[in-house]
Amino acid sequence: MKPPLPPLSAAALASLLAARAAAAELTPEDLATYGLTLDQFQSVRRSESPADFGGLPSQDETDQLWLDAASFEYDVATSHASDKASTSPGFHPYLVCSMSPGLSGNQREGQVNAMFKDTPGVESSHFYANPNLYINNDTLSCGTLRAFNDTIAKVYVANPDAKEWMKVNPLHPSMKMAEYTVDTMETWFDEEEVADDVVSISGGGAPNDNQIRVQVLGLHMLLCPGVQWFDEDQDQDMEDISDDQIAEEVKNFVTENGGETAAEVSFYHHRVGGMDGPDALYTERMALWNAHLANVTSWTKDDGSNACLDTVIADHMLWIVKDKVLEVTAGLSFKEATLLMEEMGYEQWQMENCLAYMTYALALSPQVCTLEPRTRVRTLCKDGTSDLSKCPPPAVEDPNSARGRAGSLWRFVASMAGAALLSVTL
User: Fold this and answer.
1) Which of 119, 149, 286, 314 is 20 to 30 A from 280 (CA-CA)?
2) Within 265-394, where are the H helices?
3) What is the pLDDT of residue 206?
4) Beta partners for 373?
């Protein structure tokens, strides 16, 4: 560990207190106006945001709903300031865009990072930048950053001109989801598509004749900056977080507390559930996502158990972190999932609801920055089960056995007879 930092001088302390006081004057509603509009964001990343925020009677209402969502996310970050764990919603992911003219992407990135580092009250452990840019062109450079509590407010207060060229948006679920996420999942859930794509895949390329290859739908996510290396003790000493720990942390966020942990940080849940007032606007898509969430939380029994969260998601999904990516895929084949569904007494819609909840909850996780569905190929037994030990390759005859030697002799004699016949014919 590094030695403790020296105490602040009187001047530095005064500057810090002034910055904190000024930051308190910037409300979440103020900060929301410093971000990209919905249309501007869609030019940076093709996402589910137009579908989630669209369909209202006027553009003004859509724009206001977009700002309301950003304000909510700022509130989430500051309301979890007492939790400084790596999993805390207080460490919120943001999209940070620079429109400084005449600069390269690297120069813009350096300008933004320097501004954060030089802001009073903002420590290196309070923000984690990603060197990979979402977009980089002559007019705009955007990347992701994870910042703690009111860090964004402090930076804008200390750099009042920054709002003219720096746009910051808290990332919420629709911004993280690639635009085809819902369409892909709905197609996959359709019974006819499932039968074609999952059950009746050709066995071509399978390791042996007792096995087949099938397509499996999974979720592919990029982890946010700082998730894999984090100042756990807040002592300016970054520590590597193991892949297994990260996978477990994200899974816990999705499954713990009967789904209420995810619900607490969901703007859609608050808006559709009436917590923002009876007249608060929301869209049909928001209501649909909230229905998935509300259904799952309602399935929690008095003893705290929940078949969707405990059995389907926690026990039968594969959670794998590699490099900067989290992959979540089914651990069961379609046939096995169908049998499990019958054992649980689930109907088809309940299983689909459970998986839709999982998708939305993953996008709510403060450790996830992007999400998209992807298919991968998986090997199964020909009967559709996943235990490959029950469908091993056919036994290969030992050439040294008596039967093997006899077979080899017969093949040798047969080949010689064929050669003799060939010579006579010629």
Assistant:
1) 149
2) 267-272, 284-298, 316, 334-344, 348-364
3) 59
4) 219
User: Helix 348-364 crosses helix 181-189 at what angle (to 10 degrees)?
Assistant: 160
Residue 242 sits at φ, ψ, to 5 deg, of: -65, 155
Residues ≥6 apart with Cβ < 8 Å to 201: 212, 213, 214, 215
Query: What's 315's DSSP letter?
Result: I
How many angstroms separate the CA atoms of 88 and 78, rounded?
Answer: 11
Under 8 Å CB-to-CB from 203, ≥6 apart: which residues?
209, 211, 212, 213, 382
Q: What is the pLDDT of residues 151-179, one digit of tens each?
A: 999 999 999 999 999 999 999 999 999 99
Contacts with 135 (C-beta within 8 Å, 6 or more apart), sequence order: 44, 45, 141, 142
Reported as a pLDDT band with limits 50, 70 and 90, residue 259 is: very high
Residue 136, amino acid: N
The whole-model pTM stands at 0.82
Alpha-carbon dihedral angle through residues 241, 247, 249, 252, given to the nearest 10 degrees: -170
Instruction: List Cβ neighbours of 144 (8 Å cut-off, separation of 6 or more).
Output: 93, 94, 95, 96, 130, 134, 171, 224, 225, 369
What separation in angstroms does the CA of 45 have from each of 50, 147, 177, 187, 254?
Answer: 11, 21, 10, 23, 25
For residue 367, give the 3-state DSSP assignment.
coil
The answer to which of 204-218, 251-265, 306-320, 341-355 has the lowest mean pLDDT is 204-218
Dihedral of the alpha carbons of 134, 137, 138, 140, in degrees to the nearest 10 = -20
Which residue in the block uniquely carries the two structure tokens 């229905």?
291
Residue 419 pLDDT: 35
Phi, psi of 22 (to 5 degrees): -65, -40
| Structure token pair of residue 377 | 């190929």
Distance CA 343, CA 337 (A): 10
- The CA-atom distances, in angstroms, between 64 and each of 41, 68, 371 are 15, 6, 25
Q: State the pLDDT confidence band at 417, using cuts at 50, 70 and 90.
A: very low
Q: Are 47 and 177 in contact (CB under 8 A)?
A: yes
Q: 34-66, pLDDT tens digit by residue?
A: 999 999 999 999 999 999 999 999 999 999 999
What is the C-alpha separation between 96 and 141, in angstroms, rounded? 8
CA distance 241 to 209: 42
Helices (H), 92-150: 105-117
Give the count of beta carbons closer than 10 Å to the beta carbon of residue 44.
17
